[in-house]
Amino acid sequence: MFGATSVGVGAIVGGGILALAGVAFATTGPSAILAFGLNGVIAVLTALSFAEMASKFPESGGTYTFSRKVLSVESAFTVGWVVWFASIVAAVLYAIGFGSFATLLMSELYSTQGSVPSWLGEPWSVPAVSIATTVGIGAMMTFRSSGGGAWINVAKVAVFSVLIVGGFWALSEQSVLKTTQELRPFLASGWGGLIQAMGYSFIALQGFDLIAAVGGEVREPAKNIPRAMLLSLVIALLIYLPLLFVLTTVGTDSSQNIRELAASDPEAVVALAAKHYLGTSGYWLVLIAAVLSMFSALQANLFAASRIALAMSRDNTLPAALSRLASGSNSPWVSVLVTIALVCLLIQILPNLAAAGAASSLIFLVTFAIAHWLSILVRQRCVIAPPPFRVPGYPFVPVVGGAACLALAVFQGIAVPEAGIIAVMWLALGGLLFLSLFARRARLTDVSNIASHPELSRLRGNSPLVLVPIANPNNARAMIALADTLVPAALGRVLVQTVVVAPPDWDPVANHRPSAQLHSVMNEILHASSSLGVRCETLTTVSPEPMQEIARVADLHQCQSVLLGLSEITAEARDTPLEGLLGQLSSDVVVLRAPKDWQLDQSQQILVPVGGRGGHDYLLTRLLSSLSREQQRQVKFLRVIPTDTLRSDQKRIRKELDRTTRANAGRVCEREIVISNDPIQTIVDRAGEAGLIILGAQRLGPRRKLFGNFTRKVALESNCPVIIISRRG
């Protein structure tokens, strides 16, 4: 908890108040104290929502991780992309702030000795110090997995404590009349000015969210993340509010009040006010506090930004190389280096730091509002496994907190239009990169995550339905077991359909055969569902055209998947009724051909022959992840190539197979290339008796799908079960 709190304290305490106290005082006068206090209330409400979700999802990534669990992969990328940018820009601002105060401190130290080096006055000195410090922090972060800067935090809190204690000492020697005069007029610009000051200064309390961004590295996260968030905010407010009070009451002489002092020099108001009541030592204390604060805030934002990039890369919404970890420290060194490089680049090229900072503030406020909304969705959808930490006063806390964050974001967008422009430009760039580079792999990874962790379907508001038409009683057990694997009963629905095939003028009294067939099938369905513990629903309809009836029911119930059984297959047949059904269905289709009495848990090995062309990637990924969710299976991707294949083509095919494996499986699996002129026999031999072969249906057009010659021959010659898949559409 101490380390997690250090991340929050490092990001919050110091830099914000030193940079924004002057703006707040100039805008609203002494009521800047109230502005910071109200912002503190909003921040605490937001931290509570963050804490609930961080306890439910104790992984690095912060708001991005929460979005990935609850929203679509495209929405999650958008949130992660802008939060990463906001953290990087915040790091840029703190890096430049550190460079400015560090060079000023060095100039003051040299001036006490009589001569100041000329290079300290050069325009390049501040960027040079900023970049050197950023690179140094990055180098440390690549060798150790920490970022709180604990001892620096202790030092700066001690310095601020001296400033506060000294202020109250001066206040004790001042008359009550003088103190009350300094607090008048309290609302110098009315309530409108107070709201403006809140909008300008809210970002001074940003930083508690960085604890969630590094949540994957916090021990006992369900307990320590909520405590660290609230504790870091409490520490910040216990420093900010008393400091603002003493700056207001004893920070000026009788010739001007705090608002006038802030209006004349907003950036130096804290230093000037401290110098007034503590003398030169107060000025030096502020400089020391500024250097320590900017350094720790820079370190915390770099640490959090690199972890956001790490979380995104693991989901393939950013390049996978960013998830590489150092062998000793497990630090994501590539993510750290990329983040450091972007910060150093922006230090040199960013033309308008004020607008960039406002854009960062705007993005954080919007994502805070999104976090409140997500916390409501999580509370509503996590019925089975609710978050360990739950927000008190629900739904008041997320509703009020979200509305307040959104209102401040709107104010920020109106007050600084450039902020909105920068945010939109960054979003546009991210959209282009996602669609052109990351979309396919990110969506495949998302499909795999949902199949491996079915609770994600419920978190996203989905209750998937799989339709299982059963006509052969011998297939009932295998079909229901596979359906439950695709859609677990606790998170979706399995609808078993039986079709009574009878003519339109069927008389059940005169013709008992359809009823007897139905009775036999229903007995096996009930026995299988009871023995497997699958609570499936059943639907019986009567139709002379069973395939059309299956298509009608699948469309009526908007089924995510349709699971079909295949009893007979021949080498020559084309456009069979079952293949005609494939063209009518808009759902994903899984066709199972299995020996009598086959059980799903018997197939420990899964063989996936590939021919170099995809088309069923998303369904294949979902199926493989579902099959491996509760039972470890050996998955092998197999490519059979002719004996006359050139070496150059073999090398290219190997790379293609590696890409296909990574994209479809997303896990450790075997890859094999076999040189043979008999691919059918090779596949049958590799599958063995305990295997399971997964093949794809051949798509000839939008509404025409066939099993294909290759699929037919494999199914005919193999003794093991075969699954044929056809992606929706």
Q: Any overview of this molecule?
A:
The chain crosses the membrane at residues 7-26, 32-55, 76-104, 150-171, 191-216, 228-247, 282-304, 333-350, 356-375, 396-415, 421-439. Residues 5-416 form the Amino acid permease/ SLC12A domain. Residues 606-725 form the UspA domain. The protein is α/β, with parallel strands linked by helices. The protein folds into 3 domains: 1-107 and 147-444, Up-down Bundle (Amino acid/polyamine transporter I); 463-503 and 514-590, Rossmann fold; 603-728, HUPs (Rossmann fold), CATH 3.40.50. Helix content is 62%, strand content 9%. The protein has helices at 2-12, 15-28, 32-56, 63-70, 73-111, 125-143, 150-172, 176-182, 190-201, 209-213, 221-250, 258-264, 269-278, 280-314, 333-349, 353-381, 396-415, 417-452, 455-459, 476-486, 513-532, 546-556, 577-584, 617-627, 647-665, 679-687, 708-717, and strands at 465-469, 493-501, 537-543, 561-565, 588-593, 605-609, 634-641, 670-675, 691-696, 698-701, 704-706, 722-726. The protein has a 10-stranded mixed sheet, with helices on both faces. A two-stranded antiparallel ribbon has the order 10-11. The protein is elongated, with a radius of gyration of 32 Å.
Task: Compute the average pLDDT.
Answer: 87
Count of helix runs: 27
Biggest sheet overview: 10 strands, mixed
**Domain count:** 3
CATH superfamily of the largest domain: Amino acid/polyamine transporter I
How many angstroms does the end-to-end distance come to? 51 Å
Over the alpha carbons, how many angstroms does the gyration radius reach?
Answer: 32 Å
The share of residues in extended strands comes to 5-15%
The CATH architecture of the largest domain can be given as Up-down Bundle
By secondary-structure content and strand pairing, the structural class works out as alpha/beta
Helix content: 55-70%
